[in-house]
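We append the chain.
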Amino acid sequence: MKQSSHTAGNRGRQRVTADEIIATMEDMTDEKQREVLCRFFKTAPGQYGEGDKFLGIRVPATRMIVKEARLCVAPDQIARLLASPWHEIRLAGFLLLAEEMSAALPRRGVDTPSLAAKRGKIARFYLAHASRANNWDLVDLSAPYIIGRWLLYPDADGKLPDRGILDTLASHSDLWHQRIGIVATLALIRQGQTADTLRIATRLLDHRHDLIHKATGWMLREVGKKDPGCLLEYLESHFRDMPRTALRYAIERLPEPQRLYWLKRQ
């Protein structure tokens, strides 16, 4: 990937433009893999990914491009990537944004007002472009690492961000915003914070779409990995109202006798 002559701030690295990334990725087009991805991500008429376009690039290859360009792509250039009709190019944009958030986290436990301000700016940028995360992989590879991480640390005003944003996302009319609302909590679960996941999961119990059932069950399963008792208490209160798919995902890591117990009770 060729780089421009502009330096990336005090990093001493050259800026990378959206045009350079797009050209590199378009040169990697693979027609056979494109067909595979279109089927896998359900792009046919009437399916959840209807109309999405693929170049046929595997995720590891996209990650390699992101690794080369990380922290060297300006926000306006990331916005151009997110505006692309090509799925993989949008993924590159979201992964670059996740790298920016990673670089803005406290270092060795030390936070600064400038890092906090940067985290808030990145989160707001992501939310403004959330509609471009219009398939499940784009959500799952970005939401925990951007919104989830942002919620873990104080903003520039010294206060934790309002986690009501998760409820706002989960209540959105758009399927993908709703999935962001539940999947973002993965970052919180990994820090032993499960209350937000349980609240959002309950809000989504009566959702009609299988992709939300799967995401909710997945997050409940992660809760169970951190705190098995917490998951069992939640199941006892809500198993009758849970979609079958959500229940199956939630109990996937339980011993077989416990899995059968919950399936038979529903």
